[in-house]
Sequence to fold (719 residues):
Amino acid sequence: MFEKLKEDIGMFSSFFLMIPQLTNSKLAIDTLRISEAKYRSLFENIDQGVIYLDRTGVVIAVNQAAEQLLGLPRDVIVGRKFADSCFKVIKEDGSIFPEEQQPPMQALHTGKPVEGVIMGLFNSARQNYIWLVVHAVPEFRMNEHQPHQILMTLTDITRQKQSEGKLSMASVIFNTIGEGIFVTDKHKKIISVNEAFTTLTGFSQQDVYGKNARFLHAKKHHLTSDDDLNAPGTGLNSWQGEIWRRRKTNPDFPSWTTISEVKDANGEVSHCVHVFMDITHFKKAQDHLGFLAYHDPLTKLPNRLLLKDRIDHSLQTALREGSQAAVLFLDLDRFKGINDTYGHEVGDGLLREVAKRIKNLVRKEDTVSRYAGDEFVVFMENIPDAKNPAKLAQKLIETFNAPAYIKGHRLKISTSVGISLFPQDGQDTDTLIKNADAAMYRAKKEGRNNFQYYSMELTTEAFEKMSRERALRQSLERHELILYYQPQVCLKTGKLVGVESLVRWMHPTEGLLPPKHFIPIAEESGFIVALGEWVLKNACMQMRRWLDEGLKINKMVVNVSAIQFLRSDFVATVERVLHSIGLDPCYLELELTGSSFMDHSDQTIKALNQLVAAGIDLTIDDFGIGCFSFNNLKRIPVKKLKINSSFVVDVLNNANDEDIARAVIALGHGLHLQVIAMGIESNAQQNRLRDLGCDEGQGYLYSSPVLPWSTVFRTLVAE
Ligand code: C2E
Ligand code: MG
Fold:
C-alpha cells in the first residue's frame, strides 16, 4: 500500500518537475493540461495526506486528505509554516516535536528523504491528536543542491496505534494484576495463564496447558459451576461465582471467579477468560461475622437469636413426633454484687467459668445460651419425662457449690433455676422462655440456690423424688437395707434346692419398703451398681454362713438388674466378692432379666460366658414377659428359665396361661434348660405345674421371703 503511494506521488512530483522543460507548442500545452488535470485529480483523491512545503518550510499545497487530517481548511493551512503553532506536532512519547527534528525540516536541511517517522498531529476539528506515519522527500531543481520543495505524505495510523495501545495495556494487566487469570479455548482446554495464576495455585503454564478447566476444581467444589455458562439457551456470556480450586501442593481454597466468553467474527465462542481471586480471608472474616451475629462474644455461647432459632426448629419436630422438651432459665444469685465489688474483669471471668460449668453438664444435643447479663438458658430437646430436667437443674445448682477462682479471688456463687415444659407450659418459644423465667423468680423467692417448675405439682414431685434418691444413697451408710430370703424347692421331691435373696429398705419414716419402691429409682440414678454389689456380698456371706452351719442348700440366687450388669465391670466384681468371702462360684446363681441380654453385643455374650466358665449358673427371670428373642436363647449360656408368677396364678383357670406355662416348659426342656415356676401359692398350682413337667417352684406355698434365721430353711431341707 505504502509502496503504491510512493509510486503515485513520484509520478505526481515528476509532473511538477517537468513543467519548465516543456516547450511552448500547443500540443505540449494541451498535453500539459491533460496531465495536470489527471494528476491534480490523483493528488486530490488519494487517501494519504500530501503537503508541499517550500524551502522555508511554508506550506504551498495540500490535498483533501491532508485537510481532513489536520482538521483545517486549505486556506488556513497554505501560506503557514508547518512549524506554526496551529499545527501541534508531538512525538510518540507525547513530548513536543522540535521544529528542526520534524521530518520536512530534516529533509530540507539534509537534502535526504526522511521515511516512516511516527508523529502525533493535532486535529483541530476533532480536538484530539491523530497518529501519522510521515515521509518527507526533498525535491531538487536541475543543477541545484538545495531542495526547492519538500513533499510530505501523511498516513493515518491512529486506529492501529490505539489497538496496539490496548494490546500492550492488556498484556501489562494480564501479567501484573493480582487476580489469577487463565484462558481456555472453545473446548475448555487451558491455553494460557498469568503470573498471579501460578502464584495462587502453584501450577505453571506447563503444568496446566491443554488440561480441561475442571482440572483446577477442588474435589469439594459442588456449587453451581461454569458449566452453566455454556448451557444451551441460557444466553449468558459471563458467569460469576464461588469455585473451590485446587493447589499444586497446598490445601484447596475458595475463589471468586468471573468467566467471560470471547466471541469470534462469526459470533461463535472462541475462548473463555477465567479471572479468579483467593477469598479464603474474606470467607474467614465472613464466618467470624456470622459467628458473632449468633453468639455471645464473651462466653462464645449461642445468643438469644440462635437460641430462639434452635427452639423454634426443635419444637416443630417435637410437635410432629409428640416428644417433650424443656427450657431451664438460670439466673446467678447476687452476681451484681460481685461485679460491683471486684470489677467487670472479674465479673467477665466468672461468666466464662459459669458457661464452662454449664456446658460440661448438659447433653450434646442440648443448647446452652447466654440470654442476657447473668442469665443463661438451657434448652433440652426430646426429654424422656417431665422429671428429667429437674436432675439437670439439681446438677447445675450443685456445680456452683464449688468456688470459682478468678484473678486471685475466691468467689462463691449460686444459681436459681426455673423450668418450663413443652407442650404443657407453652406451645411456642417465647411463652416457654417467659414461663421458665417466671419459675426462676419463684426459685429466687424460695430463697435462691434452688429450682422450680412452672407447674407447682411438678416441683413437689421432683423434690420428693430427689429427696428419696438422696435418702436411698444414704441407706447404705445407715444400714437400712435388709435381705430377705425365699426358698426354692424341687417340685418332685419338695426338697430345698436354692434360696433367692430379695432386698428391702427399712425407711426411717415409711417403714419396710418392697423393691418396687426403690429399685427403679436406684436404676435411674445409677445407685443400683452400689446397691447390687451390697446385695451380692451380703447374700454370699449368708450362704457362706449357712454352709458353715452345715445347711444343705445348693444355690444362693441373686437378682441382677440389667443396668447393673451392663454398666459396671460386673464379672470382675462378682469374682472379687466370691473370692473375698471364700465362696465357691458353684453356689451362686444369678437371675437376670431379659433386658440384660437385649443388646446381645459380643461384649455381653463374652461377660455371660466368663460367669459360666467360673462355675456360676444363670437364670432368665420373668421369662415370658417383656421381649426376649428366642435367637438369643441359643447364644447365651443360661441354665434355667423362670416362669413369671402372672402365668402361675391362672394356670388352673385360664387355658391360655396353662398353654404358655406348657410352652415355656417344653421350650426350656427342648433346649436342655431347667424350668422354675414363680408365685406358687397353692397345692393345686404346684401339682398342675409338676404335671406339666416344671422342675422347680417358688412361692408363698413354701414360704414368703423371710429373714435368714427363719426355721423354714431347715424344715425344707429336712423334708
Ligand atoms: P422377682 O425376682 O421376680 O422376685 C420375686 C418376687 O415375687 C418377690 O417380690 C417376692 O416377694 C414375690 N413373691 C414370692 N412368692 C410369691 C407368691 O407366691 N405370690 C406372689 N404374689 N408374689 C410372690 P419382691 O421381693 O417384692 O421383689 C420384687 C422384685 O424386685 C423381684 O422380682 C426382683 O426383680 C426385684 N428385686 C428384689 N431384690 C432385688 C435385688 O437384690 N436386686 C435387684 N436388682 N432386684 C431385686
Ligand atoms: Mg428374681
